[in-house]
């Protein structure tokens, strides 16, 4: 039996390493942003620090999902545990959405009561710029690893880091505006950050939910799998090609059309070889075939 073309062991190690690096970076950034934000009286910086803190929760969700998704199939889960990743993406999105709504609420209150907005200390600007640089570098590193191992969960977590970089940029602008004599720009920056986080959280949750509901692979991947099957000698056609997501992998069901004049043994051989070609060339963990004589 031919294994899938994805090395799940290497994938798990790469995911664990990149996520732990993110944990370390986010611990230092969140502590610094929140403490300096309180000291400098910057709501935007505190909001950005809370956003960074939510990354730590997201990182641990990724670590837990990564660990459990690598479990071997058993009687209770014959297809394995890869959907831990889909569930984690859904939960990660919910966390982002809730954090975003909370930030929107706080920022709106400050905008409606501008007399409560305080003058920000200049140190807040330097902390925001430092956080921006660190988060952008972290995003680029995590995205490169995620694409290398082809993990949508890691890609989601990487873009979470990019949303942090974007929020730090907005916060820096808000702090700069406050220092220039426009104090309301600080809570406005926090409001924009909240909108960005809530939007991204909704999108991640929506995608994760559909994956848990047996969403099919994308049209390009389905067309590529179909082409691989039809290239196999002895297959005259196919129908009822269905796919469903299992983590970042795919399970395929297909009816293969072969000559009715061939023996059962020959038809079986053709189906097995076609299945192995799909496993070798695509992100597929299983192919269930049915032979239809023509």
TrEMBL record:
The segment(s) forming the Cation efflux protein cytoplasmic domain are: 218-293
Give TM segment ranges.
20-39, 45-66, 87-108, 123-143, 164-182, 188-206
Q: Which UniProt keywords apply?
A: Ion transport, Iron, Iron transport, Membrane, Transmembrane, Transmembrane helix, Transport, Zinc, Zinc transport
Origin species: Acinetobacter modestus
Q: PANTHER family given for it?
A: MITOCHONDRIAL METAL TRANSPORTER 1-RELATED
- Pfam families cross-referenced by the UniProt entry: Cation_efflux, ZT_dimer
Instruction: Tell me the protein family, please.
Output: Belongs to the cation diffusion facilitator (CDF) transporter (TC 2.A.4) family. FieF subfamily.
Annotated coiled-coil segments of the chain: none
What is this protein called in UniProt? Cation transporter
Instruction: Please name the InterPro entries in this protein's record.
Output: Cation_efflux, Cation_efflux_CTD, Cation_efflux_CTD_sf, Cation_efflux_TM, Cation_efflux_TMD_sf, CDF_Transporter
- Where in the cell? Membrane
The Cation efflux protein transmembrane domain covers which part of the protein?
20-213
The membrane topology of this protein is: Multi-pass membrane protein
Broad class of where this protein is predominantly found: membrane
């Amino acid at each position: 039996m031919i294994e899938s073309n994805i090395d799940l062991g290497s994938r798990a190690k790469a995911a664990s390493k990149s996520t732990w690096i993110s944990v370390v970076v986010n611990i230092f950034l969140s502590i610094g942003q929140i403490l300096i934000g309180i000291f400098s009286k910057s709501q935007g910086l505190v909001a950005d620090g809370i956003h960074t803190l939510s990354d730590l929760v997201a990182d641990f969700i990724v670590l837990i999902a990564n660990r459990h998704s690598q479990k071997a199939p058993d009687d209770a889960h014959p297809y394995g545990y890869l959907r831990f990743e889909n569930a984690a993406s859904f939960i990660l999105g919910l966390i982002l959405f809730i954090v975003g709504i909370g930030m929107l609420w706080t920022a709106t209150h400050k905008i409606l009561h501008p007399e409560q907005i305080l003058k920000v200390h200049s140190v807040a600007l330097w902390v925001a710029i430092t956080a921006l640089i660190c988060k952008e570098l972290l995003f680029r590193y995590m995205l490169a690893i995620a694409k290398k191992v082809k993990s949508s969960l890691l890609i989601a977590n990487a873009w979470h880091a990019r949303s942090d970089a974007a929020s730090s940029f907005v916060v820096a602008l808000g702090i700069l505006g406050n220092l220039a004599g426009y104090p309301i720009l600080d809570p406005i920056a926090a409001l924009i950050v909240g909108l960005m986080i809530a939007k991204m959280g909704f999108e991640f949750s929506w995608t994760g939910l559909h994956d848990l509901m047996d969403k099919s692979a994308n049209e390009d991947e389905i067309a590529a799998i179909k082409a691989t099957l039809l290239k196999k000698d002895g297959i005259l056609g196919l129908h009822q090609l269905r796919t469903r997501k299992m983590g970042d992998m795919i399970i395929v069901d297909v009816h293969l059309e072969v000559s009715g004049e061939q023996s059962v043994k020959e038809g079986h051989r053709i189906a097995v070889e076609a299945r192995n070609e799909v496993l070798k060339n695509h992100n597929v963990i299983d192919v269930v075939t049915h032979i239809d004589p023509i």
